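In this supplementary section we document a worked example of the pipeline. Step one takes a protein sequence of length 227 as its only input; no multiple sequence alignment statistics are reported here. Step two produces a three-dimensional model, which step three serialises into structure tokens for compact storage. The input and output of this example are shown verbatim.
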Amino acid sequence: MKNKNLKINKKKKSNKFKKTKIDNAISILKKQSKKKFIESIDVVIMLGIDPKKTDQNIRGATVLPHGNGKMVKVAVFADGKKAEEAKNAGAEFIGMDDLSNRIKKNEIKFDVTVATPESMKIVSLLGAILGPKGLMPNHKIGTITSNIYDTIKKIKNGQIRYKNDKNGIIHTSIGKINFSSIQIKENLASLIKDLNKQKPNKIKGIYLKKIFLTTTMGPSIEIKKSI
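The serialised model returned by step three reads:
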């Protein structure tokens, strides 16, 4: 019985990882990944903010240099020349009242909503549907815009959107397990750079408190912040 307990303890210890450099963390995650699908590489960032204060909440979008490996479907509220721009940029669903009706009937699935300022009178009526799914267009992340073509291109080319949760934590995907270590590092560095730009002026202590890398089914590893 004593030997059996010893084996169990050793197994538990083997699943724990100390804070380490990003290269080592990526190496561990790649070795641990033995799934029949390509897992996502996710990052969890604990921020030193007070999420109860609106002026300290973090929300934005970052174009990852290597994308995050996901196919993104875009719904665009626009008409006329802006609708044509959306089509040329590769948007899957484009329209005004007709698009609104399709969303109300749950006929289409998409990942991002983009809207022209003029179309917001229609989009605002969909708040109860789009809001809970995190699909409501927003000025801060650039999805309410007149620059339709460039916005959609950025989204298609690897733009991710993020916001802190009620505990001041940001959780987003920055790639796939089959990305090279350099691609993962550069994607994370791009995200960190943008987050630092958004640091609230009132934050006096540590802003980026802890950073963890994980995969869809793998362990979570804390990494040293010097990326």
